[in-house]
Amino acid sequence: MSPMSRGMKRQSGSLSGVALISLVVGAGVVAGALLWRPAAVQDPASEPSVEYGRRLLRETAALLGPGHEDPAMQYTGTYMDCASCHLDTGTRPGTLSLLQSATQYPRFSGRDGGERDLRDRINGCMTRSMNGRELSRDSLEMLSMEMYIRQLNEQFGVMGESRRQSGEPATFAEPDRAADVAAGELVYQERCQVCHGEDGEGLAASTDMAEGYLFPPLWGPDSFNNGAGMTRLLTAARFIKARMPLGQPDLTDDEAYDVAAFVNSHERPQRANLEQDYPDLTNKPVDSPYPPYADTFPIEQHRLGPFEPIREFYRDLAVSGDR
Ligand code: HEC
Ligand code: HEC
């Protein structure tokens, strides 16, 4: 019942002048209600909200996944969730935490060759890590995710020092050699396969794929695509050393390095036009696994290392003023 009809009922039988005043006041209330709608009584998905943003990161498969009943809402190309990589929905300090991301943007992106803001960065993960398509910049979903990530930063601001500590193993230190895929396979079989599966396919939470994964896939058709950050050996090794095996991250640097190489030696979805990334190729990370490069090191070395000789080449290039 609208405030006006409620008001009119209460006034029934009274003097017509009073009724008129109440009508005018009632109309004002209605007009006001149209302008100011309290968030609490709204369907969470009809207005951007922190809560909807949090759900979008945690239940991405259900809300934006390839099986969504409304084809217009099928945004991701995988049943993984953002939280498959941004653990605890980005709230845990340390590797791939989103607690401070709001303060990192806008900033220059070498990959895009220009200044990019938080929404562009979210779309970066939408189209690469989630193998999907871009959300419109002003959609409910984009605005909600952005609100959620900004809210995380406010939480970080009031967190005590001890809660800000990540509790992770010492950061990954890169071995001075090429990664050994065969050694990585052994690590995989002993430490990863039990959850991520014999063929890296992961384990669905139920027969309904909209419920996402209990253990997400590491390669194959439903994994992140070949333009994702996780395909970089050093990015993957850092994450794996810090977070995996889940609940017991105790790999050595060598094991993390080799198993990351093994994971990324497999087939995964292909992203078109990757050669257009990094318009200035001297900004390309040394472990970017796809060509072209501004150097003549073999592609195998960009995929597996050792990386120090490649860094040295670019340092010399910068010094000689040739870039
Ligand atoms: C396959 C793993 C993976 C998935 C899934 C994933 N991301 Fe990411 N995300 C990454 C990696 C890797 C980075 C880059 C970290 C770096 O630059 O070293 C990143 C970076 C980000 C950043 C920037 C963080 C910062 O502080 O600079 C945001 C924001 C982000 N992701 C949001 C999302 C959202 C939203 C989703 C879901 C739509 C998502 N990600 C899904 C791996 C993933
Ligand atoms: C006890 C089960 C378990 C084990 C063992 C385990 N993981 Fe995971 N892994 C997970 C879960 C669960 C996630 C998703 C995070 C979440 O849901 O909180 C994940 C996420 C990942 C991701 C990012 C998401 C994706 O699918 O790409 C990578 C990469 C990964 N694990 C690699 C490894 C590697 C390498 C090992 C072995 C060294 C390993 N994991 C061992 C459970 C496990």
Mean pLDDT: 89
Could you name the ranges where pLDDT drops below 50 across 5 or more consecutive residues? 1-42
**How do the helices and strands follow one another from N- to C-terminus?**
HHHHEEHHHHHEEHHHH
Estimate the strand proportion. Answer: under 5%
The assigned structural class equals mainly alpha
CATH class designation of the largest domain: Mainly Alpha
Q: In DSSP terms, counting alpha (H) and pi (I) runs of 4 or more, how many helices? A: 13
First and last CA, distance: 69 Å
From the alpha carbons, calculate the radius of gyration and give it in angstroms. Answer: 25 Å
Oligomer classification: single chain
Task: List strands and helices in order, with pairings.
Blueprint: H1 3-11, H2 16-35, H3 50-58, H4 60-64, E1 107-109, E2 114-116, H5 118-127, H6 140-158, H7 161-164, H8 181-191, H9 193-196, E3 203-204, E4 213-215, H10 233-243, H11 253-263, H12 299-304, H13 308-319
The structure holds heme C (2 copies).
One heme C (HEC) binds at residues 57, 60, 80, 82, 84-86, 96, 98, 101, 104, 121-122, 125-126, 129-130, 145, 149, 224, 228-230, 235.
